[in-house]
Structures are given as structure tokens and as C-alpha cells.
């Protein structure tokens, strides 16, 4: 066969193969046309038309006037110069009882232009070294004598040697509504002052912090609260402090649940710390334990509810009333007592020098006594 013929024959084969291969790669065609019904039954007759709700109804007009969003930047610019970063060092011990230095970070805010700083008790508790960094770059080391705390409400006041500082204004947390915008500003993660925004989710919230300690009248907010934010201000859109950031719920699947101590609760405590160095409260002078199954079994108690007296201070109102370790207080002034926390709140709601009537069990015998509450002594 001549070469020319072979050449064209090869080209023709290639063309045929390409057509076949292209046909093999094409998307197969699937007939999805429904088959005609096989039933020969007659179709049902159409029913009467439905009665309309309102034939004359028209949709409401579409509005384009949405309210202007708040300027968070203006709030932050106003508040940030008054927020401080607090860094601490404390001595801790490892598993083998070897000492090591543990560092911590928190926040605070300027209450008074002459150097009064507000923060949380847990930010500075147990610290050997406390430093306060201002927004203008100045750093102050705090002497232990300039730290005043109230563990019960998780509040603390520090004093630095500075004047003419930009103090924040106090707002009315009682006027907050669910949905109001708020801004949390603080030393988040110890990486410098930053701001987060959110709304008021709830107010008047109580959450347990530790065994025997509960914080009351808290503001719940969706603003992100992170370690290091503690002690910083929660402010409204006027830049006024309406809460002191204190805690958050950290759990898998939980977001946007941070808490701040309301100013209504905090300001009287802060005032007492500034004026007296500690908070003066009515005082009974006992250490208590809520009766549970362990206490009932361990001490062979005759009652199933109440508060067990584990220790008392010599010369205290409890001592003068004749109470002893092992007694179980079950009633004060006609109010049944079921937990140590309840008893403490009841005492604090009373007045110094007020006489209270105490019903308690000692062994198998129920007794009644009375005593006048004293002024709480200064912390050690």
C-alpha cells in the first residue's frame, strides 16, 4: 500500500477512535420523564375555593430607616485611659512542695483622681508583688499596706502614688434593661487593654464561686470575658461604670455568659474599704458547716438539716450565748436555717448590737439562747 494511503488511513482511524472515546466519556442521558398513570379511575372534581382572610389586605410598607448602631469606638476612647493592667506574682508550691513563682494578670479602673484603683479580690489575693500599669505607660509597684480587700464580695481597692488621674464616672446599674449595650474593657489574657462589646442578658443573677461563697446581684452579659478581664469595668454607652467584671462560666458548649458585680452592690463595699480599710458587718463569731449526710454520720447528729458549729471565737457573741463546737443551729429569729450561706446572709442583713434568738441542738436536746451581734473585727 502506498505510504500516502497508509497516512490517511491512520488519520481516519485516529478520528474514529477520538469520536468513540469522546462518546464513551459523555455524561449519560437519563430519562426522568414520569410514566403516565396506569389507573383509569376518573380524577376527583375540584372543590370550592377557600374563603380568604381579607381580600383587601396589602403587605405593610417596607421601611429602610434602621436605627444607627452605637459608636463603641467613642465609648472605648473615653474609658480606656482610666483602665489599668494589674500583674501579680505569688509563691506557690508544686507536687513535691517545692516553691515556685506564679504570675497572674487582672484589670482595674481609676475610681479617684488621687490614685484609688478598684479591682477584684481574687486578682490580688495572696500576691507578694503587685504592679499597676497605667494607660500612659507609667508603672507603679503596690505596697501591701495599700491593698484593702473584701473576700465575701470579691472586691479590692488599691492606692497608688499618683494625682490628676482620669477617674471614671459611676452609672446606675439598676436602670439597665435586658438588651442594653455594654462594653467590657480590661487586660484580657494579660496581653494589654482591649475591649469587647455585648448586651445585658440578665440582671440580679447569683452564682456560686467557691464552696461557701456566692456572688449576688450580678449582671450577666454577652460581652466576651476572658482571664485577665477580672476587676475591669463594664460600662454603658455613656462610658459610666455599671459593673465590675468578675467571673464567667467556662464550659464546653457555653458562650457569652460573663458576669459583673453591679455598682449598686459594689459601691457601698468600696466606700467602706476606702474609709475603714475593711467592711464592718454584724458578727456572730463562728465557723459553720452545712449539715449533710457526712456530718450526720460523722458526728451522729440528731437532726437532718441545719448548720453545724465547727469553731467559735473566744469572747464572740456566739461564745457569750453559750454555743459550743458540735452544736447545730436550726433557727434564728423564727427563720429555719438550712445552710451556712443562708445563716451568713441573715446575720449580715441584721444590725450591729441587734439581739437575735438562736435555736440549736446539742446532742438529743433542743435549746434556745440569745445574743447581741458585735461589730466584725478587722481582717488579720
Largest sheet: 7 strands, antiparallel
What's the overall average pLDDT, rounded? 85
Question: What Rg is obtained from the alpha carbons, in whole angstroms?
Answer: 36 Å
Low-confidence stretches: 1-30
> What is the number of helices?
7
Strand content: 35-45%
Number of strands: 21
Q: What is the rounded distance between the termini? A: 117 Å
What class, by secondary structure content?
alpha+beta
Rough shape? extended
User: Fraction of residues in helices?
Assistant: 10-25%
What is the chain-wise order of helices and strands? HHEEEHEEEEEEEEEEHEEHEHEEHEEE
Widest β-sheet, arrangement of strands: 5-4-1-2-3-7-6
Structural summary, described in words:
The chain is built from seven helices and 21 strands. The protein has 380 residues and is an alpha+beta fold. The strands form four sheets. A seven-stranded antiparallel β-sheet has the order 5-4-1-2-3-7-6. A six-stranded antiparallel beta barrel has the order 8-9-10-13-12-11. The N terminus is likely disordered.
Amino acid at each position: 500500500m502506498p505510504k500516502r494511503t497508509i497516512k490517511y488511513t491512520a488519520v481516519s482511524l485516529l478520528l474514529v477512535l477520538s469520536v468513540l472515546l469522546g462518546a464513551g466519556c459523555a455524561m449519560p442521558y437519563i430519562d426522568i420523564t414520569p410514566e403516565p398513570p396506569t389507573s383509569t379511575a376518573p380524577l376527583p372534581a375540584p372543590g370550592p375555593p377557600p374563603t380568604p382572610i381579607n381580600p383587601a389586605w396589602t403587605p405593610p410598607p417596607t421601611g429602610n430607616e434602621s436605627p444607627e448602631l452605637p459608636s463603641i469606638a467613642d465609648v472605648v476612647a473615653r474609658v480606656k485611659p482610666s483602665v489599668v493592667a494589674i500583674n501579680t506574682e505569688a509563691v506557690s508550691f508544686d507536687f513535691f512542695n517545692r516553691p515556685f513563682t506564679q504570675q497572674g494578670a487582672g484589670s482595674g479602673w481609676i475610681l479617684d483622681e488621687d490614685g484609688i484603683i478598684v479591682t477584684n479580690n481574687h486578682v490580688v489575693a495572696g500576691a507578694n508583688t503587685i504592679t499597676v500599669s497605667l494607660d500612659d505607660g507609667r508603672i507603679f509597684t503596690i505596697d501591701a499596706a495599700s491593698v484593702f480587700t473584701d473576700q465575701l464580695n470579691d472586691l479590692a481597692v488599691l492606692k497608688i502614688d499618683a494625682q490628676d488621674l482620669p477617674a471614671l464616672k459611676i452609672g446606675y446599674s439598676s436602670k439597665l434593661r435586658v438588651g442594653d449595650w455594654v462594653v467590657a474593657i480590661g487586660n484580657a489574657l494579660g496581653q494589654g487593654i482591649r475591649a469587647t462589646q455585648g448586651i445585658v442578658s440578665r440582671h440580679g443573677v447569683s452564682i456560686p464561686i467557691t464552696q461557701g461563697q456566692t456572688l449576688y446581684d450580678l449582671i450577666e452579659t454577652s460581652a466576651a470575658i476572658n482571664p485577665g478581664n477580672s476587676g475591669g469595668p463594664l460600662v454603658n454607652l455613656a462610658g459610666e461604670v455599671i459593673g465590675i467584671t468578675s467571673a464567667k462560666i467556662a464550659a464546653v458548649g457555653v458562650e457569652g455568659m460573663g458576669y459583673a458585680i453591679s455598682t449598686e452592690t459594689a459601691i457601698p463595699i468600696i466606700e467602706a474599704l476606702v474609709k475603714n480599710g475593711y467592711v464592718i458587718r454584724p458578727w456572730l463569731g463562728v465557723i459553720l458547716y452545712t449539715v449533710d449526710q457526712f456530718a450526720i454520720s460523722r458526728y451522729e447528729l440528731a437532726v437532718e438539716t441545719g448548720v453545724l458549729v465547727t469553731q467559735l471565737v473566744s469572747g464572740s457573741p456566739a461564745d457569750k450565748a453559750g454555743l459550743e463546737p458540735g452544736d447545730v443551729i436550726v433557727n434564728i429569729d423564727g427563720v429555719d436555717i438550712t445552710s451556712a450561706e443562708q445563716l451568713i446572709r441573715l446575720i449580715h442583713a441584721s444590725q450591729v448590737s441587734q439581739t437575735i434568738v438562736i435555736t440549736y441542738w446539742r446532742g438529743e436536746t433542743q435549746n434556745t439562747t440569745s445574743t447581741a451581734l458585735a461589730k466584725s473585727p478587722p481582717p488579720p
